[in-house]
Write a structure and sequence with these properties.
- The longest helix is centred in the middle third of the chain and has 8 residues.
- It is built from 1 helix and 13 strands; from the N terminus they run βββββββαββββββ.
- It is mainly beta.
- Strand 11 and strand 12 form a beta hairpin.
């Protein structure tokens, strides 16, 4: 049985972490970018997920179950809450399930563009004394609908992130 790998020293990260989430916004190319009738209150940017491990345990293992990392990666959905103009329903008819370029604009001026679509827009209960909000979900597809090829994300960083 092999010993554990050699310990690795943790270095100092490069760049500068975001100091404040204000003002993170989303643009959907299919909407014309800036004309979509909602105002972001919260934005959860996409994450990256390697998926569950591949089980490689066999009858030859003696002590441990073994596993390996998958080859493919998944970009996780973007989600959040927003205020909205009721006219957004007209926008939704042309945006729900339409594959397009999605851009997340971070507070420091950096951005992340990827292929995806607006998967859901679900209003919360409207009640006296509160601004009506909705929850939205944007599904990354990693598929270029124009070129019909796999497409990853593109980050544009302002040098401070």
């Amino acid at each position: 049985m092999a010993d554990a790998s050699v310990h690795t020293t943790r270095g100092t990260p490069e760049g500068i972490p975001l100091q404040d989430g204000y003002s993170t916004k989303i643009a959907l190319a299919a909407s014309g970018g800036d004309t979509f009738s909602f105002w972001e209150k919260t934005v959860t940017p996409p994450g990256l997920d390697g998926g569950d491990p591949v089980d490689t345990t066999t009858m030859h293992n003696g002590t441990y179950r073994t596993m390996r990392a998958r080859s493919l990666k998944t970009m996780t959905p973007v989600s959040g809450t927003c205020l909205y103009d009721p006219n957004v329903y007209n926008d939704l008819l042309t945006l729900i399930n339409v594959e397009t370029t999605v851009t997340v604009h971070f507070a420091d001026g950096s951005s992340l563009a990827f292929y995806g679509y607006l998967r859901s827009f679900v209003p919360a209960a409207a009640e006296e004394g509160t601004s009506p909000e909705a929850e939205y979900t944007i599904q990354p597809t990693n598929w270029d609908p124009t070129g019909n090829v796999e497409g990853g994300f593109d980050g544009s960083y302002n040098g401070s992130a």
